[in-house]
Design a protein that fits this description.
This protein has 8 helices and 12 strands. It has helices at residues 3-19, 38-43, 60-67, 119-128, 182-191, 239-255, 289-292, 296-299; strands spanning 55-59, 101-106, 110-115, 132-133, 139-141, 149-152, 156-160, 196-199, 208-217, 228-236, 264-267, 274-280.
Length: 306
């Protein structure tokens, strides 16, 4: 499919990844491990429920530092996603601010914000806005507020939308989280040390089972002209699909020059190989462009391309 067609057909899909508003690859079968990755640990908060939700992880502290190197900051790439970010008006008033948040993991309907929170002030605001504690004495709910449920502690806020039972989305049983799934483990390892990671929906029936985009900061941040590297990783259903995905990515790099100049595409072997594209940004390019503007690499591995 021509690049211009890819852009018109799939632009909305690529942009949706950031709505839930941000190293090496294993090439064989079996879990890649993932070690003590902050991304993987955060994925362990989200229950694997068979849904096809997109997921966004953000190291908010690191994003703040990276943003200092850009005249206009990071924009939406530097902000947590999920329903809490745009809740109008917020039932916690001014008791919860973005400066209190250190890290976040969000889907469009559930997630966790980590940081340092004033529990007394936040819960007082929740009470004044009609929220009440349920039978577990931990969850705050208000059926008149779109079914938003929250659990507030000094170090984290867990939330979910729909009803009280939806808190199961952020309280997974042992071994039943996204972090326990091999696909997320392998893609997380492929991304490496990133301050933002945006995961597509897990779709085992499609040629590409899972893909993700990571933002990696230069070693030195907080300076004018800072550079960012974007890491794009995917798991293919087989070697033929992986080779086709790599070919598609390389074609986009060539066709769209100089947009993706310097990009390196590698492809693994074995059962469900990992394909990786490392895309350097210049100091003038804001992080997240592969989601927000230069979306052709995402589009090159859409189901219609295989």
């Amino acid at each position: 499919m021509p690049t211009t067609a890819r852009r018109s057909v799939l632009g909305a899909t690529a942009l949706a990844v950031i709505l839930v508003a941000g190293t090496g690859c294993s090439s064989g079968s079996g879990p890649a491990g993932g070690g003590d990755s902050e991304v993987l640990e955060s994925l362990g908060v989200l229950a694997e429920d068979g849904s096809t939700q997109q997921v966004a992880y953000l190291d908010v502290d690191k994003a703040r530092e990276v943003g200092k190197g850009y005249e206009r900051g990071l924009g939406s790439v530097g902000l947590p996603g999920g329903v809490l970010s745009g809740y109008p008006p917020p039932p916690w008033g001014e008791a919860l601010t973005m400066t209190q948040v250190d890290a976040s993991i969000d889907t469009s309907s559930a997630g966790r914000w980590s940081g340092s929170f004033d529990v007394e002030a936040i819960t007082a605001e929740l009470k004044s806005n009609g929220y009440r504690q349920t039978g577990d004495d931990e969850t705050w709910t208000n059926s008149g507020r779109n079914g938003l449920s929250l659990r507030v502690s000094k170090q984290e806020i867990l939330y979910a939308v729909d009803d009280e039972a939806s808190m199961a989305a952020v309280t997974p049983e042992n071994g039943d989280s996204l972090g326990d799934k091999e696909e997320y483990q392998r893609v997380t390892e492929c991304l490496g040390d990133v301050y933002r990671a945006d995961f597509s929906s897990l779709t085992s029936a499609e040629p590409v089972h899972l893909s993700a985009l990571g933002q990696r900061a230069a070693a030195s941040t907080g300076t004018t002209g800072a550079k960012n590297t974007e890491i794009f990783c995917l798991i293919a259903k087989d070697e033929a699909t992986a080779d086709r995905a790599a070919e598609n990515l390389r074609s986009v790099v060539a066709e769209e020059a100089p947009a993706f100049d310097g990009t390196k595409v590698t492809v693994g072997k074995g059962d469900r190989p990992v394909v990786r594209a490392v895309v350097p940004d210049t100091g003038a390019q804001r992080p997240g462009r592969l989601i927000l503007s230069d979306t052709d690499l995402w589009m090159a591995v859409a189901p219609s391309e295989f």
